[in-house]
Amino acid sequence: MISSLRRFFESHIAAAAPADPEHGLRLATAALLVEVVRIDRDTQEAEREAVRRAVHEKFGLAAGEADALMALAEAEIAQANDYYQFTSLINRRFSQPQKERMIELMWQVAYADAELSAHELHLMRKVAGLLHVPDSAYIAAKMRARAQAAPDAPNAPDAP
Fold first, then answer.
1. Among 77, 81, 51, 65, which residue's Cα sits nearest to residue 22?
2. pLDDT digit string (tens) for 65-117?
3. Of 57, 99, 115, 155, which residue is the least packed, with the fewest Cβ within 10 Å?
């Protein structure tokens, strides 16, 4: 299994590095954002739009470039056995504040459809752990994303 993960990483993520060192990082970031959309198997257009906004904000890509990156990320995440190939690259290249911002962007995608599924909650906790985001930063990112999604809602904690 480890050899298959290594081959996947080398052929998909690391292979992009020589031509454009940022491509692999963009792809890894977009793959995690796309996974928030696909994890609950009930894809809403609001979630896809949240991914587009996040990709645009994070990398300054034009709409067509963002859509192409999202399509590639969807293919990559569908073939992935786990999240390590994505999070390991992010861990090497992002600063701690950038990783925390990544978690906030993922929360924004999760809140885009006004519902948090148990699958989304599990994914968020798992990725935050893999990115070594402390609980305090994880919760702060969640609160900021929730406030942005529903600015008039009270700040009561979520049930799950």
1. 65
2. 888 999 999 999 999 999 999 999 999 999 999 999 999 999 999 999 888 88
3. 155
